[in-house]
Amino acid sequence: MLSSRCFTYLALLGVVAAGCQRPAPPALPTTVQLVAAASLPAEPDDPAWERAPEFVAALIPQDLVDPRLMQATTAALRVRALTDGKRAAFRLEWADASEDNGAGPNTFSDGCAVQLPAKAEPTLPAPQMGEPGRAVHITFWNAAWQEAAAGHRDSLPDLYPRATVDHYPFESAALKQGSPEQRAMADRYAPARRLGNFMHRPPGAPVQDLVAEGPGTLRSLPETTATGTGKRIADGWSVAIVRDLPEGFASAPEGQIAFAVWEGAQGEVGSRKMRTGWVTMTRVEQP
């Protein structure tokens, strides 16, 4: 039989062992929690973001349609979300060692996007850009667009100040600046703009609202109502995007959302990107 001294010793060991156990860390959110707020922050460093729990979304390469991304780059995206009932604000943060926000040959920009179904419905469109008859709405932020919106010009003379050009036909002295003839000549040298395609850069904005019904169908909406601002942080980018909620979502307790990230230094552009599938987004009154 054990003596009382042995019992006391074993009891002390139990107390010491219990004292050495650390409390388990709080569980990470398993959904994007869309927290109610009276107003929405437009800047990524606004203290209001601390009200929303941070969701960590694992990213996968877009390797389903050409041109594909076959090697993983950005591993994860950190997301916080707030809503005033009509619009939603998302803060996206990710690690990126290089700041890619310039323009030029073989130069690609960092960027990110938020994708939502065009309507809140019981079933979802395909997460890969939607499907015919079942659209998705996308808000895309681009670091180079932000530089251009801030006044950093990206014309050929700006990019190559030491280059000498003999003559640009659309700058001919014989063409009055702003005349229909001059604009028509300028459009010959800007085919995307001539076709009404502003995917190269929306005028004066770092974000663009887009719609798609499957891969290869992406187009800009007639008007961009979203706003966005990105800032460099210690390990990469922090971007705030404020946009409208999908039709019918205001009365739904939860919905779905997807994200994408482009790392310019890795040659990511267009469909070459890191992305998520659909992620559940839950409306909550308190964090």
Query: How is the quaternary structure best described?
Result: single chain
Gross morphology is globular
Which CATH class of the largest domain applies here? Mainly Beta
Any idea of the CATH topology of the largest domain? Immunoglobulin-like
Tally of contiguous helical segments: 5
Strand content: 25-35%
Features:
287 residues
Write structural notes for this entry:
With 287 residues, the chain is an alpha+beta fold. It folds into two domains: 26-151 and 207-284, Sandwich (Immunoglobulin-like), CATH 2.60.40; 155-200, no CATH class. The protein has five helices and 14 strands. Strands 1, 2, 3, 4, 5, 6, 7, 8, 9, 10, 11, 12, 13 and 14 form a 14-stranded mixed β-sheet that branches. The N and C termini lie far apart (55 Å). The model is unreliable at 6-13 and 15-19 (pLDDT under 50).
